Amino acid sequence: MQPCFRPTSPIVSSGNATPVRTPLRKDAVAALRSWLPERNGQPSEVVFPNARGSALSRDGLEYLLAKHLAAARLTCPSLKNKRVSPHVLRHSTAMELLQHGVDRSVIALWLGHESMETTQVYLQANLALKEQALARTDPIKGRPGRYRPGDKLLAFLQGL
Asked: 104 partner at 20 to 30 Å CA-CA among 54, 137, 145, 159?
């Protein structure tokens, strides 16, 4: 019997920290539904096993990513000089969520960050958000050039 995955079904993932429950998108649910029968495992077994049937490690994930990245670079030359790692994919996903209006606190929870401050880096790195903020400002209504204080201001400053 295979586990029942629905779009609202959270999965439990674990890394260095405590397990994190992560909701799944509909396309991820569809991919899991087709993968589970193919892997021919028991519901209690890991979903993504390594070659020995144990849980896929970080190194194993990096190996698989590098292997498939090498194949992708053969048909997609723009990947040739790009650095791609699990961390880059994670960061790209967080930036995509941020650009689509997902609240920073939700992104922090989704990434498993203990603090929202950790997610602050995505706000600082998001050029599109900076451009949107800049577009909301009014231009300065002054003359361009160097400021030259008047005699009254200079006299006042001299008197200090």
From this structure: 137
Cβ within 8 Å of residue 48, ≥6 positions away: 55, 56
Which domain, by its residues, includes 32? 1-55
CA atoms within 13 A on the CB side of 156: 5
Residues contacting residue 27 through CB under 8 Å, at least 6 positions apart: none
102-137: pLDDT as tens digits: 888 888 877 777 777 777 777 677 777 777 777 877
- Give the integer Cα–Cα distance in Å for 106 and 22: 11
Structural domain total, the chain: 1
60 Cβ contact list (under 8 Å, min separation 6): 50
The answer to whether position 30 is within a domain reads yes
Q: Structure pTM?
A: 0.58
Residue given tokens 């790692």 in the structure block: 85
